[in-house]
């Protein structure tokens, strides 16, 4: 009952060459992983507010990339594919778990090493803004994506992203200002 | 409130990004390799289990129409060129499935056919999941098997879970029978088997015919669906290793009683990838109420599945016409059902939302906004079709309306 489809080896690569491909692809994946995993995990951490959760979600995204590495590596931008999968996983995860409520609750707890100084403020401020706004700000300023790239990833119009960014930045600024004032008192 | 310019944000986030990258502790790439090796086809199996649960499923599915038109090739002696709905309906072929009380149905020859609900909690003698493997079968006890609803199960628990039940004829002019797909997870991979099940005449259920046994390496049976004319279709993703391409590769076999499995992959009619785009917009009505409008568009090039819209909302939001809308921390309830959308077709639904006075909002809502969340749940399981998440990158099926600016309304 073994399926009888043709091998997926690329044209022209047969015999020993085909046997070598997995090792080559494997090493290539390792390089890809090393170059991207921390950056993407940092972004997801900023989005979810939970470091361990972010690590799990990004690991899952890379698992999916590895499972179809022959295809993904041919993409114009494999990093974008993994980032998108990771963000989708994170978004689904947050929504299933009650969206912002749990996120905010986590921010009030200090079970793990937290960023210090201004980073704490930024983390808390991010936690307090809307999901779309938070995502847009992180993708723009942490991932360095353009508005067009964010729009493509999220499947929305560029105008929508600009709106999210404008409102997200305003909300962030407001929350950071409030925190500053509270700390000065 | 003024908004800082981009430069300030870029500086702040550059430092923040660097700190976040240093704080995280990703696993070594060897761990990723190991997970994928162990998992192999489990990922696809998880998709099937999710479909069986009828919980929120991805917005894009690789579907195989199995109970409609030109599903698989007609029998060799069938001279009808085009298979019609009437010709392909198992109910028609088997003499009908008149409903009977308690959710059960009778097939031809007085067979009593179980529904999904009937089998959950039942004890049934099943064939072994690992024939000839001795003690390995202890991890998946089948003599008898106590059937568990997939919804309440966890992977790795070794329980015998019911994934799906379909009704079809297994031989030409034969009665309609119920074929159940059972799964067990002795380790980190799901093993499955499809078995014909009928009433045992004493109020219980018995396996009457072994249809197919999955093998995680050679024959990772993922899903079942009624064949167009006679038989049951078996969806088998190609086993793939670490460096092979993903789950777009699959095979579909047709099982008929007494016949060899037939590979109908190339001729089975595919619905293909259907991408449902979901958007939720909000409008301030200026009278203390807001209008939330959900737009669902079939952005793919094939007909979609039927689907439901499910809602949840922050307790601070009252929705006209809907009492007791669940909070988003609870299980949401489907609130509207829609039939399949043609490519490019759009449906809209809107609700009037009335926020409570801001000072009555919870602290979390005051800080983060009150959510009105719309989810699209594909009715894949209920349609007798294969549900196959084609690339696992479409995990989102919901968009949330974030009413975080309600508080800013004068």
UniProtKB/TrEMBL annotation, chain A:
<keyword id="KW-0731">Sigma factor</keyword>
<dbReference type="InterPro" id="IPR036388">
    <property type="entry name" value="WH-like_DNA-bd_sf"/>
</dbReference>
<feature type="domain" description="RNA polymerase sigma-70 region 2">
    <location>
        <begin position="33"/>
        <end position="98"/>
    </location>
</feature>
<dbReference type="Pfam" id="PF08281">
    <property type="entry name" value="Sigma70_r4_2"/>
</dbReference>
<dbReference type="GO" id="GO:0016987">
    <property type="term" value="F:sigma factor activity"/>
</dbReference>
<keyword id="KW-0238">DNA-binding</keyword>
<comment type="similarity">
    <text>Belongs to the sigma-70 factor family. ECF subfamily.</text>
</comment>
<feature type="domain" description="RNA polymerase sigma factor 70 region 4 type 2">
    <location>
        <begin position="121"/>
        <end position="172"/>
    </location>
</feature>
<keyword id="KW-0805">Transcription regulation</keyword>
<dbReference type="InterPro" id="IPR007627">
    <property type="entry name" value="RNA_pol_sigma70_r2"/>
</dbReference>
<dbReference type="GO" id="GO:0003677">
    <property type="term" value="F:DNA binding"/>
</dbReference>
<dbReference type="InterPro" id="IPR014284">
    <property type="entry name" value="RNA_pol_sigma-70_dom"/>
</dbReference>
<dbReference type="Pfam" id="PF04542">
    <property type="entry name" value="Sigma70_r2"/>
</dbReference>
<dbReference type="GO" id="GO:0006352">
    <property type="term" value="P:DNA-templated transcription initiation"/>
</dbReference>
<dbReference type="InterPro" id="IPR013325">
    <property type="entry name" value="RNA_pol_sigma_r2"/>
</dbReference>
<keyword id="KW-0804">Transcription</keyword>
<dbReference type="InterPro" id="IPR013249">
    <property type="entry name" value="RNA_pol_sigma70_r4_t2"/>
</dbReference>
<protein>
    <submittedName>
        <fullName>RNA polymerase sigma-70 factor, ECF subfamily</fullName>
    </submittedName>
</protein>
<dbReference type="InterPro" id="IPR039425">
    <property type="entry name" value="RNA_pol_sigma-70-like"/>
</dbReference>
<dbReference type="InterPro" id="IPR013324">
    <property type="entry name" value="RNA_pol_sigma_r3/r4-like"/>
</dbReference>
TrEMBL record, chain B:
<protein>
    <submittedName>
        <fullName>Uncharacterized protein</fullName>
    </submittedName>
</protein>
<feature type="transmembrane region" description="Helical">
    <location>
        <begin position="45"/>
        <end position="63"/>
    </location>
</feature>
<keyword id="KW-0812">Transmembrane</keyword>
<feature type="region of interest" description="Disordered">
    <location>
        <begin position="66"/>
        <end position="108"/>
    </location>
</feature>
<keyword id="KW-0472">Membrane</keyword>
<dbReference type="GO" id="GO:0005975">
    <property type="term" value="P:carbohydrate metabolic process"/>
</dbReference>
<keyword id="KW-1133">Transmembrane helix</keyword>
<feature type="compositionally biased region" description="Low complexity">
    <location>
        <begin position="77"/>
        <end position="87"/>
    </location>
</feature>
<dbReference type="InterPro" id="IPR013783">
    <property type="entry name" value="Ig-like_fold"/>
</dbReference>
